[in-house]
Amino acid sequence: MRLPFAKATTMDLSNLDASRLLFGFTAAYHFLFVPVTIGLMALIAVFEGWALFSGQPALRIAARFLAWPFLLHFACGVLTGYPLRHQIELHWAGYASVVQQVVATVFAFESAVAPWLFALVAMFALGWHLKPVWHWLVSTALAVVLIVQSGAILMINAWMQRPLGATFDGHRARIDHLLDLADNPLLVPKVLHTVGGAWVLGGFLVVSISAWFLLRQRHVEIAGPSLRVAAVFTLAALLVTGVAGHWSGERLAKHQPAKFAAIEALWESDPDGNALLLFALPDQGGLRNRFELGLPGALDWIAHAEPHELRGLRSLVDETGHTLRRALDEAPASRLGPTTLFGPSCCATRPGDAEIDRIARQALPPVATVFWSFRVMLLAWGAMLCLVVAVLWGRPGRRRLAACVWAVPLPWVAIEAGWLVCEAGRQPWTITGVLATRASLGHVSAAEVGSHLLLAGVAGALLLAVHVALNLAHIRGGLRPAPARSCGTRQNAPRPSLQHLSRTP
């Protein structure tokens, strides 16, 4: 028998897929630029501070050279951020109405920070004639403000992953203060992991640019120190992301068991110990892996958990089914809660057991996507770690330098894959346990969403082409020497060659 809400659900799924694709593209595109600004500014502040306190001008010249890429990425980040807000209001009106007060509180904080942020950006861009110590203070303050601003946005994301600190009145979420969102067990490791990833991106980008100059024997006296300091910075950032990622995994096992199980393709917990899978072919329809290769018992050790503490996806499906049945008995017409998994048309007629079981199975994250995205992120992280260690270990020869240049996409690959793990792993929820994604939609047709996606793709391609062209032209143009008084040292030092790079401080 066809359920009364089945037709509406089929229609909503078409709109849902189109709207998710549009928002996913826009968010991933926006995230091409924002982490670069955070990472580059932190490294620029390190360069300026090192030049100031060591008395060597090379890194200050490199810092000034990096100002242009920072400003380009900052401008693109601001431009690509506005479509996200517009899409939330238009395409995700159901979600927007629920979180309006929470998001408004965070955006009010952003608005308070914005004048300071833009003032610091202007001072950074136009203040190179200032004494080096003053400009370094501006760069350091800007690096801190960028982290603070991103931390506020990550508060919303952590709250959506685990909605603590807000009260729900049946239709909307409310908080009294921004700090109500701060007491979230997922927040601190999320901020460290995200900011650490941004530092990796900024640092590795500078490693690649410096390696390119060295391969062409250009600006060796500047590119040499720049390469080594950026490599040290990147190595430290990689270690931060590794520690924060491990911390996040431990928190996920406890607070987001479905996401953790999807990351590990763990369908059924083994009381004798769970294997850490290196390779698997998840079969979501069959709730199993068609093939798997792993290290026996290693997953429990890594997660710092007893075997019985890790929950498999099959048991989570059963738990979701029990939760849905209980929710339908207690509050079948509730706008928020587990019943939103049925969509906005639930529940004039109580769904049958078969339909409940089907929805419970659909309430799992896309396991294959999450499983492989996580491993792509790990592989990119490991490759960057090997490269920066190779740069710092002995003399960086031409092969190592060329590898650094060709590997420049790796930090973006890692960041986008990590973002996919975070967001796809939360599905099918917009706000975990409170508001399902299919109940978060607005009233925009799939055809209109498709036209918006086409427009976003064309505009994004044009913007990216201009952005890349301007950055490449800046890099090919080379570095301009800083004024002689920049750090109080002689500017006519002999130019070292690539063979002497290992002795360059």
How would you describe this protein?
With 505 residues, the protein is mainly alpha-helical. The chain is built from 15 helices and 6 strands. The strands form 3 sheets. The chain has a two-stranded antiparallel ribbon with strand order 1-2. Strands 3-4 form a two-stranded antiparallel ribbon. A hairpin with a 4-residue loop joins strand 3 and strand 4. Helix 7 crosses helix 8. The chain is globular, with a radius of gyration of 25 Å. The N terminus and C terminus are likely disordered.
Tell me about the largest β-sheet: 2 strands, antiparallel
Percent strand: under 5%
Termini separation (Å)?
Answer: 77 Å
Mean pLDDT: 84
What labels describe this entry?
single chain; 505 residues; mainly alpha; two-stranded antiparallel sheet; 15 helices; 6 strands; 5% strand; globular; disordered N terminus; disordered C terminus
